[in-house]
Amino acid sequence: EVWSKKPEFLKHLDFTKLKKQSNAEQEVVDLQIKTFAYWKTMTKRLVDYVQIISRANLSKELIDRLKPAFLEAVEGAGDLKALMVPDESLGRERRALTSRIQKLKRASVLLQDAECKNGCSFTGERMAKRFRSGDLQ
């Protein structure tokens, strides 16, 4: 169905007449077809480039307007580092939880090592070796 329709630029052409034309006349028609195709592509590119340039210029303008407002907000906030530091109680709790996790890992290794002495697989012994080497500390 797509190929049954002639393109817009070929509707006025009669191919039976083209076969009767000389080589020079056929070259002129070929040149017209190529020129039309180039023009069609060029206009699409031009529209695309206008959109890209417009978007870039508008984005730059928006950034130029917003940048001072952001800088003013940051400078007015005071010491950002002090604002972003977590509460001391959260820091203590985080350190306590980290310590507890390490102790639980050590206890798990010791339990698995004790089970291995009673005849289990070598997995516990491998973990105990990793603990002793410092991988699980």
From TrEMBL:
<feature type="domain" description="Dynamin GTPase effector">
    <location>
        <begin position="35"/>
        <end position="112"/>
    </location>
</feature>
<dbReference type="GO" id="GO:0005525">
    <property type="term" value="F:GTP binding"/>
</dbReference>
<protein>
    <recommendedName>
        <fullName>Dynamin GTPase effector domain-containing protein</fullName>
    </recommendedName>
</protein>
<dbReference type="InterPro" id="IPR003130">
    <property type="entry name" value="GED"/>
</dbReference>
<dbReference type="Pfam" id="PF02212">
    <property type="entry name" value="GED"/>
</dbReference>
<dbReference type="GO" id="GO:0003924">
    <property type="term" value="F:GTPase activity"/>
</dbReference>
